[in-house]
Amino acid sequence: MRPVPRALRVPQQSTTGLVRQGEHEPKWLVQAEKPVHYEIRMANDLLDPSRDDLAEAGATKRTDNRRFVVIDARVEAHYGHRLRAYMKAHRLEPWFCTLAVEERSKTMDSVTQVVKELDKFGISRRHDPIIAIGGGVLLDVVGFAASLYRRSTPYVRVPTTLIGIVDAGVGVKTGVNFESHKNRLGTYFAPTLALLDKTFLGTLDERHVCNGLAEILKIALIKDEELFKLLEAHGTELVESRLQPTSASGDAGQQVLERAIHGMLQELQPNLWEHELQRLVDYGHTFSPSIEMRALPDLLHGEAVNVDMALTTVIAHGRGLVTDEDRSRIGRVMHRLCLPRHHPVCDATSLVTALEDTVRHRDGYQRLPLPVGIGDARFVNDVTPEEITHAVDTLAAGGLDAG
Fold first, then answer.
1. Per-residue model confidence as pLDDT tens digits over 252-275
2. Which backbone phi and psi does 319 adopt, to 5 degrees?
3. Which residues of the chain have pLDDT under 50?
4. Exposed/middle/buried for 325, CB within 10 Å: 0-12, 13-18, 19+?
5. How confident is the model over 161-220, as pLDDT tens digits?
6. CB 58 within 8 A of CB 154
7. How far apart are CA 265 and CA 261, in angstroms?
8. How would DSSP label each residue in 30-94?
9. Where are the alpha helices (DSSP H) in 123-224?
10. Residues 6+ away with beta carbon under 8 Å from 12
């Protein structure tokens, strides 16, 4: 056998990230890194023609005046006329893809609908921005489509719900449901830009405001006692005002949003790809995927998360991690935010099965965050069926209800 030509021999250590090992049966080791850079910007009243944030979002030097816009049908009903006037004022030519999406239609069929419209539009892979305007479900669907289309096409997120602003709009995960499993198919694909406009919340119904406040409460319970105190002091006003400024609560809504977003990003940024499966932001997401899918359409995502947090608060209280006083405070805040603490689908057998599925998702361990007081947490791997049964019985009997 002829020796390998000297020119093809690669040193064992190479700064290029390509290493060849062996002579007769060689193998190549390839190492590459892809930098991640995306911007999250709070910008009120995006549809004011005097603002150029949305007009310039995702544009490059080669972008012309075309825009591919995927918009939630409910958002279209409220803001479609203003959006078209905005586009006209900036001499843009939008192509609208309107989706009527909800959790039950968060499927590959919705992704395919977006892809078909992209083909009709004839998008430039790198220079015509995809702009997604809607709630968390729409952002997940469009992000997934963008990650797949020609193996990645840049996109911009414009969340219009509270849960979109503080959760789905700021991370890098995309996904759709498959059969009875939540987000079983998905990718990690960062947007170029996320524009967060709290004025969209003005037309949000109260239930969806509360839905988003559940994800804010999550951050408060695991890492931010000051955020919890804001919810405790202003919870009712935050719901009624849709987090807009009021004479009663002042700028509490803005403070709540900023603390929640920053707290979420502090947890996500070091672990965007979830190489570390022990994540504080998984608080409230151990049992909730199964609860949400089994309860459809009864529970929204944040509502299911809150039921999960109620369960784990009771478990933590049983272990002495949460005092009687703090358990009562948590129950009162959940009540003020109009969030459910229990649902009929939460029987002990199904929740034990849900935990088993989560263990598979977390690589063989529970990695279950439990609150420690208010504003701290610890991970456990030994929650038992007996503890789950006790928590279910306690909540069914109104054990975390408060006035």
1. 999 999 999 999 999 999 999 999
2. -95, 0
3. 1-14, 403
4. exposed
5. 999 999 999 999 999 999 999 999 999 999 999 999 999 999 999 999 999 999 999 999
6. yes
7. 6
8. E--------EEEE-S-TT-TT--HHHHTT--TT--SEEEEEEEHHHHHHHHHHHHHHHHHTT-EE
9. 136-148, 162-163, 206-223
10. 19, 21
Token pair recorded at residue 54: 């949305």
> Contact 191/157 with Cβ under 8 angstroms?
yes
Residue 313's nearest CA partner among 301, 290, 331, 295 is 331
Torsion of CA 290, 296, 300, 301, to 10 degrees: 30
Buried/exposed 202-237: b ≥16 CB within 10 Å, e otherwise: eebeeebbbbbbbbbbbbbbbbbeebbebbbebbeb
Identity of the residue numbered 108: M
The structure tokens listed for 385 are 């069926």
What CA–CA distances, in Å, run from 8 to 16, 17, 140, 254? 14, 15, 45, 60
pTM of the complete model: 0.92
Q: Is 274 left (phi over 0), alpha (psi -120 to 50) or beta?
A: left
Q: How much is the pLDDT for 247? A: 85
Inter-axis angle of helices 136-148 and 108-121, nearest 10: 60
Q: Which residues are catalytic?
A: 173
Q: Distance (Å, rounded) from C-alpha 141 to C-alpha 231?
A: 31
Q: C-alpha angle with apex 35: 29 to 38, nearest 5 degrees? A: 155
For residues 47 and 204, give the distance between their C-alpha atoms in angstroms, rounded to a whole number: 17
How buried is residue 296: exposed, middle or buried, by Cβ count under 10 Å (0-12/13-18/19+)? middle
